[in-house]
Please model this.
Amino acid sequence: MNIDDFVKLAEPFDLVAFARKDVVSKVINVVQSVSIGHETNVSHVGVVVVLGDEKYLWESYYTDKYFGVQTRPLREVLAAETAAGNKVGLCKLTPAAAERITPAAAEECFETLNHRIFNISPLDLIAAAFPILRPLREKINRKLSTYATPGWMFSSEFVAACYIKLGVINDLSDGVADGKILNPKDFIPSDFLGGDVDGLIPFTRPPIWI
Model:
């Protein structure tokens, strides 16, 4: 698949997965691999949105324009990533997942989450991969307002929050009807592709890579 095919095939709120070669991505992949028990190369995720007549990548990321949740033209992102030797995968929502999304939910999701600040809390990032640290994370977050800022979101946390607001992730997403929805802070990028330690049932097709 080439860039033109990717852009043409991409639909609103499809998942976009990144397999990058930089040092930060390699560190993320090592941490994720230890957490899930097998190797993974997906270190960053975002979703597709359509604004006007153009398709964009919506993600929590750091660029020279913004440090947090933002949109970037999808075609430009794909061109830059492939030029750098990175891989980008399009993970199509399953029909059942796509049918849960309403125009009203999509609008509210974008208005609520766009321009959140990137989450730089080391404890939040590590606790997402290792459940044993989550009680400590919650305890510290309650005491330190710096870490308790609800608007801060790292990439997989943002994507999880997005899918929760859209109704794609719900009470049944972990296979247990217990009235509880998975915590966005507990997601790492590889969780969306299967093998989530919290039991997330995948709701996308396997990635199609360029």
Q: What stands out?
A: The CA atoms of residues 56 and 76 lie 9 Å apart.
